[in-house]
Amino acid sequence: MSTDSQFETIDVALIGSGVMSANLGALLKCLDPNLKIELYEVTDELSKESSNGWNNAGTGHAGICELSYTPDRGPDGEVDVSKAVEIFEQFEQTKQFWAHAVRTGMIDNPSEFIQPVPHISFVYGQEQVDFLKSRFKGMLAHPFFSEMEYSEDPKIIREWAPLLMEGREKMPVAATKMDAGTDVNFGEISRKLIHWMGEQEDCSFHTHNRVTDLNRGGDGWELTIKDLKSGITRKRLSKFVFIGAGGGSLPLLQKAGVPEIKGYGGFPIGGQWLVCDDPEIVKKHEAKVYGLSPGAAPTMAVPHLDSRWLEGKKTLLFGPYAAWTTKFLHRGGSFLDLPGSIKLHNILTLIKVGVSNIPLVSYLIQQGLQSMNTRMKELRNFYPDAQPKDWKLIDAGIRVQAIKKEDGDAGIVHFGTEVVTTKDKTISALLGASPGASVCVNIVLEVVQKCFPQLCKSEKAKKKLQEMIPSYYNRVSDGQKPDEVKKNRMCSKSAESSLELRA
Hints:
Layout (H helix, E strand, L loop, with lengths): L2 E13 L3 H13 L5 E4 L41 H22 L10 E3 L2 E6 L1 H15 L8 E3 L2 H7 L1 H4 L7 E6 L3 E3 L1 H14 L3 E4 L2 E8 L4 E7 L5 E11 L5 H8 L8 E12 L2 H4 L5 E3 L13 E7 L2 E12 L12 H5 L5 H10 L1 H12 L2 H9 L11 E13 L7 E3 L2 E5 L5 E6 L7 H12 L2 H4 L1 H10 L13 H17 L5
Parallel strand pairs: 1-2, 1-11, 2-8, 4-13, 11-19
Antiparallel strand pairs: 3-7, 4-6, 5-6, 9-10, 10-11, 12-15, 12-16, 13-14, 14-15, 16-17, 18-19
Helix pairs in contact: 1-6, 1-13, 2-16
């Protein structure tokens, strides 16, 4: 192994080429064109792990149809929709930044990464129907969801999504529908933003490059980077490091030895999809349809039947099916990843999580061992006439859920998105899963505010942020003032027009 003697200093190092790194790099470069930024990706192509279109649901999570975001009833007995409202607003920020990127020529052809598709919640059985009716009541009270429709009429639901009702026995059913939903190829938008960033002065990206070590050095972090093609190892000194490496984030944080990671562990969950490419079936379904999570299933395993646009064609995906795995990465991962992540500071946390989450572990093992017939049975809860010959099983991505101690108690599995930032604000790392990609701009804005406060304080910076994300300083989720609602609707329509989501 040879070593490049060059030892350069950069402002920002981005590890991983997923949607978080892509949006953070682009946003930082917009705010400060003088920043020197480098991105390192271990695989041979950009955005091939969690952000890859086949490795995630591709849902523009806006709280419209995802019942897992509204699981609880409030003090009045009605469904609490506050989380859905929050996620809707955060996805709006993401769309607005992407729209800005299109308008200013940073990226092109928005139809290659985002498509309009109705979002539907579908339930069956009287208990589920009662829940959805209560949820609809709560959603309709907020202006974000004023266009939502509700029906218990099988004929109307058939019009919305024919496959849901074909061959279905008579039973109570209900559905909500909003046409303003989206299907997003997060891998494609990531690649577009990274290529733009790479074309800017003092910026670059590198595939087949693995960050093998992180050590404190000087005014930042010393990165050891190995070129997997040439075998050459080089060093960089970066003032700030963002780790958006999916399942690779936790091991890198452990290498860095930051105290903030003590007690953290990782719980990998694999995913699988059933895929249908039959044109006659595909054309009958144009919606993302979400149901309720079964029993011990993790939030990320809530079943849904989706229209998807991948690799230039429309297809149907159903799932995800969860599976037990010890790998942290879908491509290039090792079955030793989980054992290798066990350290003295997190072993007790991991043991406690295993003991307290036996139903979840059992569920994951059962999911991984189930037959095609069993998987088809789950699909038929959504599409009763589904036939095995029309569907194939594919492996999807892997999500490493963050495990940490809370209040000194046993570790718990977090099925959300979490950013770990060091006390000195020189490292931030993304851990967790849904709704991460959809709310990526909100997340990276928090990173920028926390780690680059100087870029946000000036009047010039505030004006730039307002230009890129018009609703940034106008949070409707905190209240429902008519003027603010009107402004946000105008911002939303403008973004949708730029993204070619509206005629």
